[in-house]
C-alpha cells in the first residue's frame, strides 16, 4: 500500500522525466518563470512560432503546483460565470473570450495527437450534476450558453443520470460532450519535453530569486546561475515567487483537496456506469472521475488552509459517502492538497506589465484550458506583436488585501457553503 502522503499523479508516472538545474549564466530572448501550464504553454507556443532562445525556470519540478495535481478536467470557461462576463464585457467580447477557452480545449487535443503525449486522455465528456431539486439553475445556464456562446450542453433528466451515476443524491444534469479528462502531470511533462525538442531550455530546481532591470532587458538570478533576457514571463500561480510586489499582492493562494482510492474493481461499476468526469452544482462542489487503473479520484472543498493528507482524507471520505454510500470501507491510497491562485475578480490576470515583462496567473481552479489560452495569447504577443491579450486587460492587478483578504475569502466561502446547506435542508423538509 502506498503512503497516504504520496502524490498519485507522480507515483503513477510510467517514467518521471527530470530536467537539470540552471548552473551557469546564460542569455535568452525570453525567460519564462514557472513550470506549470501557464509557463509551459507560453514556452511551447513561442517555440511553435519559431522563437528561439527561450529559457523556462521551475523552482521545484515541472507541474509541481496545481497544474500537475488538479482534477484533470479539460473544458471551456473561466472561474467567473458566463452571466457575469456578459454583464461586464458585452455579448461580443464575452463570446470571444469564452471561445478562446474552447479553442484551447481543441489545441490540447491536437497537441496530444501531434506530439504523441500519453496522458490517459478519456473522451467521455463531463457531467454537471444538480445537487438540488430545482432544475432552473441548470436550465438557465443551458439557455445562456446556447443563446450567447453557441455552446450546446445536453439535458439529462434524473432517470438518465441515475442510470450512469448510481447515486440518489442528484436530481438532473447537463452533459458537456466536447469536454474530456486526463492525467495532468503526464500532459505537463509531455508538453515540457516537446518544448525542449523545439529548442526551449527547461530547468527544474531553479527558483527565480531576484528579478532586476539589466539595460533594456532583465536579469533573473537563481541559486547557481542567472538568465539575462530581453523579455520575462511571470507564471508562478499560487506558489508566489516574491519577484514583484504588485504581482504577488494581486492574488490569493487558495487550497483545494484531492484523494484517490484503491483500485475498486466491480465496486467502481457499482457507483459509475460512465467514464465521464463529474462535478455538482453547489458553490463548493465535489469533483471526481474514474481513472484508467480502476481507482476513483475525488476532489473538493475550498479553503485558505493547506491541510495534511490525513485531514484531507477525513474530509473527503465523508463527502464520498454522502454521494456513494456503497463505497463505504474502501481504502484511500493517496491524499493531498494544493494551492491555486485566485484574483478578487475571479478572472485570469494576463498581459503586459511594461518594459518586456509579462504576466499569466490567477486561473482560480479552472485553469487547464485558460492556461493554454493564456500561453497562446502571450506567445502571439511576444512573437508577433498580437494584442488580443488586451481583451483581458480590464481584469487587472487589483490588490487582494492580504491577509485581511484571505480572512474575507474564507468568510465568503463559509457563507456560500451555508447557503448551499440551507437550500439542501429546505428541500429535504419540503419532500
TrEMBL record:
InterPro entries: FAD-dep_OxRdtase (IPR006076), FAD/NAD-bd_sf (IPR036188)
Organism whose genome encodes this protein: Lysobacter enzymogenes
Record key words, sorted: Oxidoreductase
Record domain FAD dependent oxidoreductase: where: 29-380
GO cellular component: cytoplasm
Gene Ontology MF term list: oxidoreductase activity
Name the UniProt record assigns to this protein: FAD dependent oxidoreductase
Membrane-spanning ranges: none
Pfam families: DAO
